[in-house]
């Protein structure tokens, strides 16, 4: 009589009947990619909002402002969201890696799927290494009985695993995919990501070597139009090494409304004033700079990145007060054209891919690592010149010292990658965060709008989220933070 | 020619109420020693062919009156019936049967139709308010979707605490029953009465009996009321734009930030005269309204010797107190029962309800980011107006950070819609067969069928800037489109019972055995489309782009065996045992079956010889019971380790299917078990004038099913349901009622009080946090958990001396207690700061009548309970939202150091004063006059002339008076909901007529 009570779910697979076909392995791998869209990683507006933690931009409220003000603590929700996103992706990658061996399939494809999962696992472990400075290192299928109480591993242990995963992935990944699979991990993506990690870890020789492998493979080149690089119609262009894929209406974010109407990233004069004039001179020393027309004759990347008063945007002249937070708006990563009127795109209906790794970044990584490892050489100038040529900026003087060149590389990196959420990582690894993140910040009229604090003893790392410690008291807190 | 019988006297006369002289319809008249009977008609008249010779003894009886015997000598007599105050002989509905109130061994609370009559009850769950030991909390008042929480004897489990509701024996939502069709409600509170419902009974069982016809009379009842409702509460919001802006500037200055509104703008606003450009809008005045309500009910009932029937129709038309919300309800209930012959009785009950409600597509129930239309209302600002000069919907022109887009709530209310159509049908048929050996077999088969169709029409709206005249589309609302959701649920029930009743001298035995099978099939289907050319057409086919579909189905089943034996000796010693053996598909094979026994006994002391002299005692009964109950109420397939579909991704804009494990499951879970002991006393004296009841209960729920948190490091998975712990609810329930008459003035006062102590006994060493509440050993379930405040810092020196709170702590900030004295205030300093389950719930009724006038009052209250309020308007200037007046007048400044509130800041820009702390815990106790009713019945003499049995007019006020210290909202709220943006509760005044023909 118990057969009356036998009822099976009809809308899901179970652990017992799932791992049977290659099709399901691929679906499971797709599910790992889907974790890239988690709000703590590259979903929502998260990757861009990292700008607000840097001297590039200002968010007038919320968690990003608290961090910038040095008022954050272990309860600040941002940290837990990132922590959750990272471990969601790690868990999914681990489940795939633990089960892929059960399914019969072509061995080369098994290797490729495994390599994709390892690349993604490295992407997910990255914040746990860089931002939290170490966290439990978990590589097996999700299991609450064995994994719930694990304490933190050191940053070094995570770092070792990041490199191991990427090194194992690189040989098994293809250099490119067909049109229907574009967006999957490539060997170039794994190499470029490895270069970024080595650069952040100040492993200059290795970083230079790895970046050079990407360059020498000759699979990527700079997209001719710096602004157009971020247009919807140019998604997946020749400069893109790895991008997080969005598509309306299924997979969306809110870049357009948050950048334009909400002005939630307010570029700061500190960034705007850092753009050189057209001749490559600091505006303090410029012959072209006119304080009455401060945005003319500047590095073209300024107006490709920042919306300034009096310029044309969305087919209309930008008025005073249109971007009230700092006087500036961020243009990069909006889909709007300067000369074409456009309606508001509601929150959660934007679909432009977020570029996690692009070729210009690799060139800059190479330049920086090569200069740090070996001092100025022609290959460094060549790399920089490629980037400057694209936007018609003159070349650098080739007689710079290592220090002078370092300053130029750092400046170039800030300007080229402004608005992409990377500068926060740079100022921390360069050890200059306490210089550039302490003190008052101002709007375009020179009025103070806020005060920032950065404690180098504490703020180079984020606190382990209070909720994570609450759920697993074995997690030790970072120095300077309460629970 | 027919021969007339030799003796054939005819008796006619009238039955009337001895006090009021009102005709009593439906009274039964019999001659002693014969089976002849007659029934009085609508005017109390009867005509009786007796076949007997005068004199003889006539017995007249009617429910609610004392039975009289009188010797009759001649025809046309008046029979005076004395009202019977004693309710002991009333019959109470219990599981799979009925029992006399006097011989009950368990704890059962009842509500009868008299208590419910004429209250403007829009939802039958409100009918339970006032039943002893039952706590009904109406936390929102949207027509058609009122939020009513029912708790019987506290909160026993950590998950679903809703009781099992059975209508005429079939599981059915209480909210779908027409209150006018309710004959009685029984609430089975203790294990003895509820155990026969096994693994669904742990939260208590509510049995609803619907009305049936009376033999021998045809009756038409028509009830109508009409009235008006308004919200019970409006926040004390700053609606003066200058005050709002100056206050915001002050808040930002206090935070060390520049002012938001320049003197230029403030001056312009001060001097502005155009009320569309320079408004001072109170959005609650714009969005709330006085809303009409009306309800009609028509019931035709009656019966002959063998068959009775009842047929009723109901119509409710209720507008919401929030603009552009309304609901209509149509109900039908038909009930037929027939004694086909001496051994077979059959019956059928067919009930149908159709609800049709409407609200904004920006629904209050689902959020939409800001909590829907109510969320937007709580963000309304004085500088915003609903309409521009030309009558078009207005945009805002003063830009407010955090509030960059004005989603005009009035426009979103009137344009587009969410319409919900719900059809529910209950078809219930039974056959009862009298078998030899005093056995009765009954088979019942029923189908409870639900179909819902919900449609969202998301509009596109243009807004006019009242200052510039520029027209722009409203920003950041869902794209214009249509979403339609079809939901279907079928619940089939089949049960068989075999009943045995026999009296052996002083011994009476009643036994029941039964078997039941139930299956529940649910499915849903939804579709969405965009690409509409306007807001007018809202069919899915009228759109053209971005279509999307979804749908799924699920099943669950129950199989049960049950039995009961009731033995009584001279109605003095009563014993009862119940058992149910229950299998549920919600658990894995091998974990499905459970046995739920109960035992109870009662001793009626007044039947003992030593109390035989005490004739003033009607009833003195001691009751005791022990039993076990189950709870299986967790989501389906919770034991299955599932791989979820729909974790998709896209490559180069091609969507690909993705799967992932997103939730852990524990295949070893089983139902939770509640063990309850109950001891009670019933004491009725003075011929029913005084009634007293006391119950003590001890209810322990073990193997509690709880979705446990798993640390995020384990794949950030949702935790599994597990049998984790033990919770105790101990309580006392007392009720006392007194009724009497002074001449023509009759009165009744009654009250009940329940005390409840809730404690988590064991959660296997774990602590479960859920936002601002905590579940851990030794505390009540879901106790509020946060920092303890110790006043407000007055100066820098005090801050210096105190433990570190935040880098920018300043005078005017809340001082928190450093519980562990480690010099830093953080999460480790949290303690239990409040209690979300009321310790005391109480209610009382006051009724009086003088001749034809009745006055009834019903109060309900809770005491010793807290709530935590945050969010827009509970906290100031949250993310561009408004502020309440007290923040501008009673917040800390150096000049006002004794202020109640800390220094004025924006809550989103300055979190340290808005951490979860006892500073924001509020006492949520209240006492509310739920209902007051004044009625006048037309005198019998007038009615007779009009050939009407009853004509009563009444006025009724609901929720009109509330005593509470809670100032941020209606205290009758969902106490663990932190924000204040539920659809408002309403108070109403209605007037109506009861007419019986």
A few lines on this structure:
The complex is a heterodimer of chains A (483) and B (997). Chain A is mostly helical and 483 residues long. Chain A has helices at 15-18, 22-34, 46-49, 63-69, 77-99, 107-130, 144-147, 155-169, 187-200, 204-217, 255-259, 269-272, 301-305, 359-374, 378-390, 402-416, 423-429, 433-436, 466-471, and strands at 13-14, 57-58, 240-244, 266-267, 306-307, 312-313, 316-317, 329-330, 354-358, 439-442, 448-452.
Could you describe the 3D structure shown?
The complex is a heterodimer of chains A (483) and B (997). Chain A has helices spanning 15-18, 22-34, 46-49, 63-69, 77-99, 107-130, 144-147, 155-169, 187-200, 204-217, 255-259, 269-272, 301-305, 359-374, 378-390, 402-416, 423-429, 433-436, 466-471, and strands at 13-14, 57-58, 240-244, 266-267, 306-307, 312-313, 316-317, 329-330, 354-358, 439-442, 448-452. With 483 residues, chain A is mainly alpha-helical. Chain A has a domain at 18-173 and 431-483: Alpha Horseshoe (Serine Threonine Protein Phosphatase 5, Tetratricopeptide repeat), CATH 1.25.40.390. In chain A, strands 2-4 form a two-stranded antiparallel ribbon. In chain A, helix 2 runs antiparallel to helix 5 (77-99), helix 8 packs antiparallel against helix 9 and helix 10 (204-217) crosses helix 14. Chain A starts with 12 loop residues before the first strand and ends in a 12-residue tail after the last helix. Among the domains of chain B are: 10-81, Immunoglobulin-like (Sandwich), CATH 2.60.40.1120; 91-217, Ferric Hydroxamate Uptake Protein, Chain A, domain 1 (Beta Complex). Chain B has ten helices and 51 strands. Chain B has a 22-stranded antiparallel β-barrel. The two termini of chain B are 39 Å apart. The chains are: A mainly alpha (483), B mainly beta (997). At the A-B interface, strand 1, helix 1, helix 2, helix 4 and helix 5 of A face strand 28, strand 32, strand 33 and strand 34 of B.
């Amino acid at each position: 009589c118990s057969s009356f009570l036998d009822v099976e779910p009809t809308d899901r697979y179970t652990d017992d009947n799932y791992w049977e076909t290659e099709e399901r392995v691929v679906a499971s791998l797709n599910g790992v990619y889907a974790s890239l869209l988690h709000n703590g990683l590259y979903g929502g507006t998260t990757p861009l909002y990292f700008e607000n933690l840097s001297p590039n931009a200002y968010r007038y409220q919320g968690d990003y402002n608290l961090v910038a003000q040095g008022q954050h603590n272990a309860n600040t929700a941002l940290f837990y969201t990132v922590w959750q996103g990272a471990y969601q992706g790690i868990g999914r990658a681990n489940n795939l890696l633990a089960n892929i061996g059960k399914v019969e399939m072509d061995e080369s494809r098994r290797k490729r799927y495994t390599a994709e999962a390892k690349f993604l696992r490295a992407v997910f472990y990255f914040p746990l290494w860089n931002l939290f400075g170490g966290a439990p290192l978990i590589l097996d299928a999700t299991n609450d009985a064995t994994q719930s109480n694990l304490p933190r591993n050191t940053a070094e242990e995570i770092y070792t695993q990041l490199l191991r995963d990427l090194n194992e992935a690189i040989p098994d990944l293809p250099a490119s995919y067909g049109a229907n699979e574009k967006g999957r991990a490539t060997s170039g993506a794994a190499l470029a990501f490895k270069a970024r990690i080595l650069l952040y870890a100040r492993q200059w020789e290795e970083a230079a070597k790895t970046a050079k492998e990407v360059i020498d493979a000759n699979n990527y080149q700079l997209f001719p139009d710096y602004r157009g690089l971020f247009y919807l119609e140019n998604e997946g262009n020749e400069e893109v090494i790895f991008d997080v894929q969005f598509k309306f209406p299924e997979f969306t974010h809110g870049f357009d409304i948050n950048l334009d109407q909400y002005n939630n990233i307010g570029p700061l004069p500190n960034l705007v004033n850092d753009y050189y004039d057209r001749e490559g001179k600091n505006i303090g020393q410029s012959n072209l700079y006119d304080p009455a027309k401060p945005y003319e004759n500047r590095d073209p990347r300024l107006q490709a990145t920042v919306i300034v008063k009096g310029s044309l945007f969305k087919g209309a002249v930008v008025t005073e007060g249109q971007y009230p937070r700092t006087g500036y708006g961020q243009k990069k990563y909006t889909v709007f054209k300067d000369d074409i009127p456009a309606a508001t795109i509601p929150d959660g209906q934007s679909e432009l891919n977020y570029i996690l790794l692009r070729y210009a970044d690799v060139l800059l990584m190479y330049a920086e690592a090569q200069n740090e490892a070996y001092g100025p050489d022609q290959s460094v100038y060549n790399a920089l010149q490629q980037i400057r040529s694209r936007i018609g900026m003159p070349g650098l003087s080739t007689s710079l010292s290592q220090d002078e060149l370092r300053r130029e590389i750092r400046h170039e990196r800030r300007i080229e990658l402004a608005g992409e959420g990377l500068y926060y990582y740079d100022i921390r690894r360069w050890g200059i965060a306490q210089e550039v993140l302490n003190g008052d910040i101002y709007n375009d009229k020179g009025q103070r709008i806020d005060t920032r604090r950065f404690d180098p003893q504490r703020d180079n790392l984020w606190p382990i989220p209070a909720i994570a410690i609450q759920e697993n008291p074995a997690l030790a807190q970072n120095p300077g933070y309460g629970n | 020619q027919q021969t007339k019988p030799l003796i054939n006297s005819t008796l006619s006369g009238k039955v009337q109420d001895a006090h009021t002289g009102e005709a009593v319809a439906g009274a039964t008249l019999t001659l002693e020693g014969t089976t002849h009977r007659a029934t009085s008609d609508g005017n109390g008249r009867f005509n009786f062919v007796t076949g007997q010779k005068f004199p003889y003894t006539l017995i007249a009886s009617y429910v609610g009156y004392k039975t009289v015997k009188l010797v009759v000598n001649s025809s046309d007599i008046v029979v005076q019936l004395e009202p019977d105050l004693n309710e002991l002989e009333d019959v109470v509905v219990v599981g799979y049967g009925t029992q006399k109130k006097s011989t009950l061994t368990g704890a059962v609370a009842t509500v009868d139709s008299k208590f419910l009559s004429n209250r403007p009850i829009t939802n039958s769950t409100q009918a339970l308010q006032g039943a002893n030991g039952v706590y009904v909390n109406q936390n929102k008042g949207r027509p058609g979707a009122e939020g009513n929480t029912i708790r019987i004897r506290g909160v026993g489990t950590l998950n679903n605490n809703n009781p099992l509701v059975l209508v005429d024996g079939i599981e059915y939502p209480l909210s779908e029953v027409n209150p006018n069709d309710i004959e009685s409600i029984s609430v089975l509170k203790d294990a003895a009465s509820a155990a026969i419902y096994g693994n669904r009974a742990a939260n208590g069982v509510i049995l609803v009996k619907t009305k049936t016809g009376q033999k021998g009379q045809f009756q038409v009842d028509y009830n109508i009321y009409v009235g008006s409702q308004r919200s019970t509460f409006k926040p004390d919001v700053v609606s003066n734009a200058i005050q709002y802006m100056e206050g915001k500037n002050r808040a930002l200055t206090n935070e060390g930030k520049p002012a938001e509104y320049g003197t230029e703008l403030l001056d312009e606003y001060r001097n502005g005269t155009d009320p569309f450009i320079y408004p001072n809008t109170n959005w609650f005045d714009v969005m709330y309204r006085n809303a009409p309500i009306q309800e009609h009910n028509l019931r035709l009932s009656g019966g002959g010797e063998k068959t009775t029937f009842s047929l009723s129709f109901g119509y409710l038309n209720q507008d919401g107190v929030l603009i552009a919300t309304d609901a209509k309800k149509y109900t039908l209930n038909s009930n037929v029962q027939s004694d086909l012959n001496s051994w077979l009785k059959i019956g059928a009950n067919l009930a149908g309800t159709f609800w049709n409600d409407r609200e904004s597509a920006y629904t209050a129930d689902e959020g939409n980011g800001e909590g829907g239309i109510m969320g937007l209302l709580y963000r309304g600002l004085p500088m915003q107006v609903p309409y521009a000069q030309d009558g078009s919907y207005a945009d805002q022109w003063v830009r407010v950070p955090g509030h960059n887009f004005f989603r005009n709530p009035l426009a979103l209310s009137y344009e587009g819609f969410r319409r919900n159509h719900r059809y529910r049908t209950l078809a219930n048929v039974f056959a009862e067969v009298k078998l030899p050996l005093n056995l009765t077999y009954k088979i019942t088969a029923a189908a409870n069928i639900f179909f819902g169709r919900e449609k969202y029409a998301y509009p596109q709206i243009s807004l006019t800037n009242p200052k510039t005249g520029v027209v722009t589309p409203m920003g950041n609302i869902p794209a214009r489109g249509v979403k339609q959701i079809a939901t279907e649920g079928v619940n089939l029930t089949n049960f068989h019972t075999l009943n045995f009743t026999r009296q052996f001298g002083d011994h009476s035995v009643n036994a029941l055995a039964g078997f039941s099978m139930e299956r529940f099939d649910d499915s849903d289907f939804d579709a969405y489309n965009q690409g509409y050319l306007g807001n007018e057409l809202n069919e899915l086919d009228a759109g053209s782009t971005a279509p999307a579909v979804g749908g799924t189905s699920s099943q669950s089943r129950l199989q049960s065996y049950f039995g009961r034996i009731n033995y009584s000796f001279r109605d003095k010693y009563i014993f009862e045992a119940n058992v149910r053996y229950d299998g549920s598909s919600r658990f894995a094979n091998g974990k499905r079956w459970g046995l739920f026994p109960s035992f109870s006994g009662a001793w009626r002391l007044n039947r003992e010889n030593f109390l035989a002299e005490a004739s003033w005692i009607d009833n003195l009964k001691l009751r005791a019971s022990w039993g076990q109950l189950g709870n299986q109420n967790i989501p389906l397939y919770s034991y299955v380790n599932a791989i979820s579909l729909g974790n998709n991704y896209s490559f180069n804009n091609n969507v690909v299917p993705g799967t992932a494990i997103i939730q852990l499951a524990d295949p070893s879970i089983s139902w939770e078990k509640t063990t309850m002991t109950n001891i009670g006393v019933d004491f009725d004296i003075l011929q029913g004038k005084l009634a007293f009841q006391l119950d003590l209960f001890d209810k322990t729920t073990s193997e509690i099913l709880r979705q446990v948190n798993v640390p995020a490091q384990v794949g950030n998975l949702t935790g599994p349901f597990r049998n984790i712990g033990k919770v105790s609810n101990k309580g006392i329930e007392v009720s006392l009622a007194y009724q009497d008459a002074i001449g023509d003035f009759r009165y009744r006062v009654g009250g009940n009080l329940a005390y409840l102590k809730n404690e988590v006994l064991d959660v296997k060493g774990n602590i479960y946090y859920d936002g601002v509440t905590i579940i851990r050993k030794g505390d009540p379930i879901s106790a509020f958990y946060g920092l303890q405040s110790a006043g407000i810092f007055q100066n820098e020196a005090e801050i210096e001396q105190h433990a570190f709170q935040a880098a920018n702590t300043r005078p005017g900030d809340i001082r928190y207690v450093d519980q562990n004295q480690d010099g830093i205030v953080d999460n480790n300093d949290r303690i239990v700061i409040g209690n979300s389950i009321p310790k005391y719930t109480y209610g009382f009724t006051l009724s009086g009548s003088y001749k034809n006038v009745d006055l009834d009052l019903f109060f309900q209250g809770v005491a010793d309970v807290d709530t935590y309020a945050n969010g827009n308007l509970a906290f100031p200037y949250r993310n561009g939202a408004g502020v309440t007046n007290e923040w501008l007048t009673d917040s800390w400044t150096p000049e006002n150091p004794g202020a109640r509130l800390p220094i004025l800041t924006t809550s989103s820009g300055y979190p340290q004063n808005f951490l979860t702390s006892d500073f924001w815990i509020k006492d949520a106790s209240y006492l509310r006059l739920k209902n007051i009713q004044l009625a006048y019945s037309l005198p019998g003499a007038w009615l007779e002339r009009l050939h009407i049995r009853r004509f009563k007019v009444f006025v009724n006020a609901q929720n009109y008076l509330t005593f509470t210290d809670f100032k941020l909202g209606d205290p009758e709220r969902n106490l663990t909901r932190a924000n204040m943006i539920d659809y408002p509760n309403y108070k109403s005044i209605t007037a109506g007529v009861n007419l019986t023909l």
